Amino acid sequence: MKRFGCLMLLCLMLPSLVLAEKLPDQVTLQPGDEKSFTLPFQGYWESDAPEIAMGEGNIITAYEEGSAILYLISNDGEREQSVQIQVQPADDVPPMIRDAINIAIREWEELGEKKIPQDPKGNKFTKWWRYACGWCGAFASYCLDQAGVPLEPTDTFRKVKPVGSGDPHGIREAAVPKLHTGFENMERITNIPRPGYLIIYGAKDYYDFVHVAIVSDVIDRGDGIYQLFTVEGNVGGTVKRYSFLYNSKAEKKEKYKNLIQLPEEEWLEPEIYHYDEARRTRSNGKYYNWYVNCFCQTWY
Fold it and tell me: What is the pLDDT of residues 32-51, one digit of tens each?
């Protein structure tokens, strides 16, 4: 009977052992989180910021907000693997906005970066908008609409008033300048990014409203620097995801340099994100570099 009881206990323990995630290159946690991993080898941990995160055995523990690099070192000192840890504040993104982000990501997954036409017959986003268009704004508005975010009616962007609360809200528009005007009139323009916000890009010496996308995630790197993760429609006729650095403290002329490429050693998920693709507009044989104009607050 004891043998049977031990066998049952082992069976109950097996799923947690089998399902343990392999140790990745990057982990995002919240303060107080503990997460277990299947280790590539046995050893001990070292951390460049033990007050932020540390490892013991096969468990990584997050203590406070910030970033740390953990090093798993084999007992004989012959092998080493590093893990970048980002400890973020607890997720306060409204569920409706989180749904919109997930819808945008699913559209990217389903499309597989396949190019689609602007014609509404072959493009669900312009079909939703009912017209052929440069559909980056239609993509963003579509995702918000499908998640149930209340949207001000089309062509009311000049007349909308402040909402009066930070509840999820937007405007049903496709044109980037109209989206900007609508959010500006709702008093929902900021230079500080948060997940679910719309990011508006400008191009230096060309136009202040060249493209709009959805911010899917944000990592505060300190001193006004943020790492942004985006889902963007109508980039080369498809949906793509990007990650880059943004300097929120850049002012005046330096604002046009506030979009910064991640260092190559931080290109951790090239199968998902475009890190080195040039963000620029070509017109009359000349290239105009993009910058981050502002963010539209779909919530706050």
Answer: 889 899 999 999 999 999 99
Rounded to whole angstroms, what are the CA distances from 162 to 53, 198, 269, 285?
41, 17, 39, 41
Q: Are 292 and 227 in contact (CB under 8 A)?
A: no
pTM of the complete model: 0.73
81-108: per-residue pLDDT in tens? 999 998 887 768 999 999 999 999 999 9
Residue 21, domain CATH: 2.60.40.1080
Q: How long a stretch of residues is the chain?
A: 300
Range of the domain at 63: 16-87
Count: domains in the chain: 2
Torsion, Cα 123 128 129 131, to 10 degrees, reads 50
> Going by C-beta distance under 8 Å and a sequence separation of 6 or more, which residues neighbour residue 114?
238
Nearest residue to 23 (alpha-carbon basis) of 83, 63, 65: 83
